[in-house]
Amino acid sequence: MKYYRVVFLVGALFLAGCQASTPSTESVSEHSASSYQETQATSTIQEEMGEQEPSTENKNVVDQGMDEATYLSEHLPLEELDSITLTDNRNKRVLLFSDDSGERYKSIYLKQKRWLKIVSLTDDELIFNQEI
């Protein structure tokens, strides 16, 4: 008799454990809602900080109003290159320059320090690195 009680209790615990581990529809929808809210909060924070998503269009994004535009045009053949913005927020702007053969140059401009770094990706060489 004791044997049957033990088997019954073990079986009941096993089944109870299986039922508790499967998520209910409510918890799945709650998870989806919280995930959506986190995504919305992240995009709001990015907008407030002035961050932009990386641009996927190949075009020349160098504007003469940019602080570093003069230095970029002095050190890079901008008319031969397409450029995309990887990062542009209130602290820094990162531009990637490419041509038909691939990615050629990268510029990093620290806005508050007014520091510009231009790197050749093909030669792994630092072209420019100073305050402007």
TrEMBL record:
Annotated region (Disordered) at 24-59
- Kindly indicate whether the keyword Signal belongs to this entry: yes
Question: What keywords would UniProt list here?
Answer: Signal
Query: So which domain of life are we looking at?
Result: Bacteria
Q: May I ask which residue range the UniProt record assigns to the signal sequence?
A: 1-20
Annotated PROSITE patterns: PROKAR_LIPOPROTEIN
Residue spans with biased composition (Low complexity)?
24-38
Name listed for the protein in its UniProt record: Lipoprotein
